[in-house]
Design goal:
Blueprint lengths: L3 E4 L8 H16 L6 H7 L8 H11 L1 H7 L5 H21 L1 H5 L4 H12 L3 E5 L4 H11 L7 E3 L12 H10 L6 E5 L2 H9 L3 E5 L5 H7 L7 E2 L5 H11 L2
Parallel strand pairs: 1-2, 1-4, 2-3, 4-5, 5-6
Helix pairs in contact: 1-2, 1-5, 3-5
């Protein structure tokens, strides 16, 4: 029987993965003086969705090492990655502070599910690889803090998704078995983390993650939702079936 619903944040409750991708793309274009275009970064960003900040930056650095090194001559790889982070965070925080922009990226149907399961007395959790500061900003903007029993971010764990640590920690805090937990994710890394924790997982895909999630073949088609308005019906049907 399902007793807890665990939501990823970025790309699941709010399309901040799109904003994150745009912030990295803008930063790298600026740092390389245009030799790497925003489109190049955006087109390749899907494979980094769901990773920790360090994982994203390391992947982007390896992918664009040559142009980054040429334009940041004299800096070692660690310093270049720090420069990417600093530049990108300045852009991303501006985006988060734009309430109109941020609210336009809320995932309406996924948030509707969260409010519904909270009302129906399921334990409701956010488990995200975002840093606490950014997660708090987004959660406050969505007005859902009072509907969450637990919020876990990257600061609460050692190993990021796709490692299952964050979901295993949720299980321990809830004092539940894995099969009593249902995870809602958007990215392949997050899906793998939930499955590795032994939990039930639904994927609600978005343009950044859809092709990779389908191609990976780690979930049965009935657990992959490409049309978010179907989410509530599909999740509640699964909950009833599992009673």
């Amino acid at each position: 029987m399902i007793r807890a619903i665990i939501f990823d944040l970025d790309g699941t409750l709010v399309h901040t993965e799109i904003l994150k991708a745009e912030s990295y793309a803008q930063a790298i274009q600026i740092l390389t003086k245009g030799s790497v275009s925003q489109k190049m970064v955006l087109d390749s960003f899907g494979k980094y969705v769901g990773l920790s900040r360090a994982g994203v930056v390391n992947g982007l650095f390896e992918e664009y090492k040559k142009p980054l090194s040429e334009h940041l001559d004299g800096l070692d790889s660690e310093a270049v990655q720090e420069r990417i982070i600093t530049s990108r965070l300045a852009i991303y925080h501006q985006m988060l502070n734009d309430k109109t922009l941020l609210s336009s990226h809320f995932c309406q149907y996924n948030l509707e599910l969260l409010r519904s399961v909270h009302k129906d007395n399921f334990k409701t959790v956010v488990a995200t690889m975002s840093h606490r500061f950014e997660a708090d900003m987004v959660i406050e903007a969505m007005g859902i803090r009072g509907k969450l029993d637990i919020i876990l971010t990257s600061i609460d764990i050692v190993q990021g998704k796709p490692h299952p640590e964050i979901y295993l920690k949720v299980k321990e805090m809830l004092k539940m078995e894995p099969e009593e937990c249902l995870v809602i994710e958007d990215s392949l890394h997050g899906i793998k983390a939930g499955l590795a924790a032994g939990m039930n997982v639904f994927a609600v895909t978005n343009p950044l993650t859809r092709s990779e999630v389908h191609a990976a073949n780690v979930l049965a088609p009935s657990f992959i939702i490409d049309e978010p308005k179907e989410l509530i019906h599909r999740v509640y049907h699964f909950i009833e079936e599992s009673r």
